[in-house]
Amino acid sequence: MGWWRGLRERIKKRQPLRKYTSFKIGGPAELFIEPKNFTDLQLLLAQAKKYKKRVFVLGAGSNILIHDRGVKAIVLRLNSGVFKKISFCGNYLELGAGVLLSRAIFLATRKGLGGLEFLSGIPGTVGGALAMNAGIPDKHIASLMEKVTVMDYNGKIRLLKRKEVNFTYRFSDLAKYIILSCCLKLKKSNQAQIQKRIREYLDYRRATQDLTYPSCGCIFKNPPGDSAGRLIDLSGLKGRRIGDACISEKHANFILNLGQASARDVLKLMVLIKREVKKKFKVTLEPEIKIWQ
Ligand code: EPU
């Protein structure tokens, strides 16, 4: 462990990751650290490169399935002050990558700034949301982004404008960097109306999605012009269970962890879903979640 130099005190070995994920599934990280600042992060990346260690960044853990064996990698969680900064400048909102979307929505609403409402109920961080271009079918976080500050894996910090980033449905090429912060453009809006829109989005989620058991949200991306949930539902798979992993009765694109589900159970269910949907509709579903192994 000598190679960690100044970070030795704070690096944890074999840290269980399950508690950092919304699925409550996953084995340990070989090494786990919450860097305090950009210098920490640069030092870590340099050491990871030198010793050929993979680096994974954990946001709110709401869109990942971590293998039961865990990951042979350094797992970073951007949870300290510098990664959680929030500042307003007129209609612009500057957010650290570790800020929760719910917090950003709350503070923007208090300032009478709208635009983020459609992200209500998504249990992610700003960095995670940008990395996967989170949103709902017709609105994505990319539409609000003006600029993003990232660090490449050589430790170099860059400021990218919106047009320098490639965003498509549930994809951004920001995933090749570590996202540090971003600037979103919002619009002045009536506070009561913002709150009403938030309530509507949350009500729709509660009515259509099972939020009572640990899950990862939607497991598969929607195929063009359709809904993966609808196809899985029509394949008669609601309620199918492997171990403690179960396809939700409420929304078929949700796999629920009923208690002690393993990553293996979830992966088996995913294989079953893909096979049945392919057989019935000739559609190949692509995972929306990230799988760490
Ligand atoms: N449907 C069914 N059966 C189901 C689920 C859905 O028939 O089991 C039908 C619905 O009745 C509706 C259509 O499929 O006609 C679309 O369903 P829904 O409005 O729930 O939207 P979705 O396309 O399944 C998307 C996002 C969700 C987001 C909702 C709400 C993806 C993969 N999913 O779901 O995002 O919350 O819209 O706007 O894009 C996530 O990304 O994790 C996620 C949950």
Describe this structure in words.
The two termini are 23 Å apart. This protein has 6 helices and 20 strands. It has 293 residues and is of the alpha+beta class. 40% of the residues are buried. A 5-stranded antiparallel sheet has the order 6-7-15-11-12. Strands 1-2-5-3 form a 4-stranded mixed sheet, with no helix packed on it. The chain has a 3-stranded antiparallel sheet with strand order 17-18-19. The site of uridine-diphosphate-2(N-acetylglucosaminyl) butyric acid has 17 residues, from α4 and α5.
Please supply descriptive tags for the structure shown above.
binds uridine-diphosphate-2(N-acetylglucosaminyl) butyric acid, 293 residues, alpha+beta, 6 helices
